[in-house]
Amino acid sequence: MPKHQPSPSHRFAGSVVWFLLTALLITGCSPGAAPVPVPSPAPEVAAACGELVKGLPAKVLDAKRRKTTPESPLTAAYGDPAIEMTCGVAPPAGMAEAQSQCFEVNGVGWYAKQVQNGYIFTTIGRTLYFEVAVPNKYSPEANALTDVSDTVQKHDKLVTPCI
Q: What is the pTM of this model?
């Protein structure tokens, strides 16, 4: 008795199903674009921030860079939950009184504010205000700053060092 051979159209259909399932698995594992609010700085600040954000590393705390929504040259995100980075933000409330709370990581001064799900770090003493929001999952959260400090030094001029 001859063996039943699938017709070419059945083999093609099987290949399509396999391809679609593989694509769904790959897409399902990807966190997608991270929602990151976009600031509205002055044009010269936006231009400088665009260069800073473009210069950020491919990974922060071993988390890969991912897209942000809405797309903006002023924002970046890494990992899931997202480590959010925003350039051109307003100085955080309370930072002016907290100069004594400035701490330095690789030559960059930061102001830290604890929030419900982690920390928000903002550069101090530089031309631009660059913010890094790090969820508790990445504890100790300040370690993320070591991965971005070189880029901040290169693209954001020092005005006043940490005291």
A: 0.80
